[in-house]
Design brief:
This protein is an alpha/beta fold. It has two domains: about 140 residues, Glycogen Phosphorylase B (Rossmann fold, 3-Layer(aba) Sandwich), CATH 3.40.50.2000; about 200 residues, 3-Layer(aba) Sandwich (Rossmann fold), CATH 3.40.50.2000. About 40% of the residues lie in helices and about 15% in strands. The chain is built from 13 helices and twelve strands. The strands form two sheets. It has a six-stranded parallel β-sheet. A six-stranded parallel β-sheet has the order 9-8-7-10-11-12, sandwiched between helices. Helix 4 links the parallel strand 4 and strand 5. It is globular, with a radius of gyration of 21 Å.
C-alpha cells in the first residue's frame, strides 16, 4: 500500500494483451477514474487490443507492437522520451512486458506480489500489490487500485462504442431477423484450438436456441480455423431458411462491431476466449465452456453461475489432487478435454439463463 492521500498527476498502465485481460483492466481503470477524475492515465497496450479500447474516455493509448521485435521497444522508448510518470502499474508478468517497462520512467513502479510476479517481474518493480488468496484475474487487477490506497467497488464498465458501430450491428442483426427474435450469439473459437468445443455440440446448442425462440448468430475472427469451425457448425445444423437460418458473421466484424453485436445479444455461448469477456462488459449473460483453465480464475466475471466446466474433473484425473490442493491457476492439459463437456449440461444452463433473465421466455 502506498497510502497516498492525494491523487497522482499522471499514471501509466502497462497491460499489452489479451482481449479478455484488457477488458478486466478497463474495470480497474474506470474504478480509478471515478475516484481520481483529474489523474491523467496513459495505457501502453497491444495493437489489436487498442482497436477495441480506442476512444476509452480519459485514457491516452500508446501502442506497443510486439511483432516488431527490437524495433517495437525502440519505438516505445522514443514515444515516451521525456515523459515522467508518478506511478506505473506494471500489470503483465510476461518478460516482454517487463522489458517494455524499462522504457517507462516512473517514480513508483507497482508489480504483482512475489508469488505472482513470474518471469522475473519482481525485478522490474519497486512496489508490490498485496497477496491475494485465489483471486479472479479481474480481482487481481483491482489489487493495483488497492495498492494506490483506493476503494474497490464491484466492477462497472463504460465501453467505448461509436454510434456507427452500434448502427452497423443493429442493421446486420435486423436484416435476417424480420420477426424480431431475441439474439443468441455463439463465439465458438478460442485462440488455441484445444480450448474449442466440438462442432456437433455447438450445432445441437444452436438448434436448441432456435427451438427456444432465439435468432442464432456465429461470430469470430478471420482465421481459417474459425471460419472452418463456423462452417462445420452450420453444415451440421438442420435449419430452414429465413429467420431460422444461422447468421454467420465470422471474420466479418471489427472488434468494435463485435462488441456492439454482443451488446445487442440476449445470451452468448463461448469457451475461454476474448468475446466471452467482452460480453460481460456490456452486461450480456455468458454461458462459458471451460476445461483447461479454472473458471473461478478466468471465467466470465459476472456470470460464474452459468459456467459449464470439466476443469475440476480433468485436474483430479491428471494430478490426483483437487484444485484446492494445487497452485492457483494450474492448467489442465490435453487436446480432448473440452469433449468432456456434455451437450445436455449446456442446454440446461441455457435454460437457467432464460429462467433468470427472460421470464417472458420461460
Amino acid at each position: 500500500m502506498l497510502g497516498q492521500i492525494s491523487a497522482p498527476k499522471n499514471l501509466c498502465l502497462l497491460r499489452l494483451s489479451a482481449i479478455g485481460d484488457v477488458c478486466h483492466a478497463v474495470a480497474m481503470v474506470q474504478n480509478i477514474q471515478r475516484q481520481w477524475p483529474n489523474t491523467k492515465i496513459t495505457w501502453v497496450i497491444g495493437k489489436i487490443e487498442a482497436s477495441l479500447l480506442q476512444d476509452l474516455s480519459g485514457v491516452e493509448f500508446i501502442i506497443f507492437d510486439k511483432r516488431a521485435g527490437l524495433k517495437g521497444f525502440r519505438d516505445l522508448r522514443q514515444t515516451l522520451k521525456g515523459h515522467k510518470f508518478d506511478v506505473l502499474l506494471h500489470m503483465q508478468v510476461a518478460l516482454r512486458a517487463s522489458i517494455a517497462s524499462l522504457c517507462i520512467s516512473a517514480k513508483v513502479k507497482i508489480g504483482f506480489d512475489t508469488q505472482r510476479a513470474k518471469e522475473g517481474q519482481w525485478l522490474f518493480s519497486n512496489k508490490k500489490i498485496a497477496k491475494q488468496k485465489k483471486p479472479h484475474v479481474l480481482d487481481g487487477f483491482m489489487g493495483f487500485a488497492k495498492a494506490l490506497g483506493l476503494e474497490v467497488s464491484p466492477p462497472l464498465w463504460n465501453m467505448p462504442l461509436a454510434d456507427s458501430d452500434q448502427l452497423w450491428a443493429s442493421e446486420k442483426l435486423s436484416a435476417g431477423n424480420a420477426a424480431g427474435k431475441p439474439i443468441a450469439v455463439i463465439c465458438p473459437a478460442a485462440s488455441k484450438a484445444e480450448r474449442n468445443w466440438h462442432a456437433e455440440g455447438y450445432s445441437q446448442t444452436a438448434e436448441h436456441l432456435s427451438a427456444r425462440g432465439f435468432k442464432v448468430l456465429i461470430c469470430g475472427g478471420p482465421t481459417t480455423m474459425e471460419k472452418l469451425l463456423a462452417e462445420a457448425i452450420i453444415s451440421r445444423s438442420e435449419f430452414s431458411q429465413g429467420d431460422n437460418e444461422i447468421q454467420n458473421l465470422v471474420g466479418k466484424t471489427s472488434l468494435k462491431q463485435l462488441l456492439a453485436v454482443l451488446k445487442l445479444a440476449h445470451i452468448v455461448i463461448a469457451p475461454d476466449t476474448g468475446p466471452a469477456h467482452m460480453a460481460v462488459t456490456v452486461g450480456t449473460p455468458v454461458v462459458g465452456l471451460y476445461a483447461h483453465s479454472n473458471p473461478q480464475r478466468t471465467g466470465p466475471y459476472l456470470y460464474p453461475q452459468y459456467v459449464v466446466s470439466a476443469y475440476a474433473a480433468a485436474i483430479q484425473l491428471q494430478y490426483k489432487q483437487s484444485i484446492d490442493q494445487l497452485p492457483w491457476g494450474t492448467r489442465a492439459k490435453g487436446k480432448d478435454l473440452m469433449m468432456q463437456i456434455s451437450i445436455a449440461d449446456v442446454k440446461k444452463t441455457i435454460e437457467r439463463v432464460i429462467h433468470d433473465n427472460y421470464p417472458e421466455m420461460r
